[in-house]
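Bench notes, afternoon.
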Amino acid sequence: MKEYIKKLQELLKQVNKKHLIAAAAAVVIFILGFISGCSCSGRGGAFGGKNLGVSEALDSFAQVIPEGSQIVARFTDNRHSLFYLNSGRLMRFNAKSKMLEEVIPYEINKEARVYYNEKDDVQGILSAQLSDDEQFIIITAVTDKKEDDDEEVATATYKLNTSSMNLLPFTPPPAKAAPVKKDSVRRSAAPVKQQQAIPMEDLPEVGDIVQPEDNTPKPAAEPKPAPAPQPEEKPAPRGQETVIVPAQ
């Protein structure tokens, strides 16, 4: 019990009034650990006795972080930490030392600029997210006060090394263009062949009446009938002559 109280006193000395929320969360963790130590003294694993495992300590702390907080990263490897964002401040809980501390960018890197003012709605760290390789936390922070006539606030982006806790400026890569579907690719039309200009015939002068050309198909000419066969004239027999009688 004395050892537990001593650790709690050391924690309170390291936390100033500005970090009251973080201090309250740390106190809750110690209380949970003490209760767990009393109930599990037979098998150990508590803040007051043997240390909790990293995973168990992180799970216990995640249950008591302030309402509205965003858990940014949770590491059970040699980093043994849990990072969360609350009210524009990035907090880190160390599962080994059972200590809770605020990650203040300008204390890590003097060139970093972060605007804090509890009276302003927009202040501190706006967003924090883990990189794809899980090695860095990308932080976007407000760098200056927002005036009433300003539509946007000045911001800066940094990357926090979760292993060395170094902070460096970061330039986000340009957004990748969405892949174009094959079906939506427009195919260029084949070039249109230019037709040769047909020379125009001489147009009739004004006033001339031009009859339209009759293009109606004409019926085929009927075949002429074959001539009727004429009887063959045989010479009259002798003694019989043809007498022509004149008309009266």
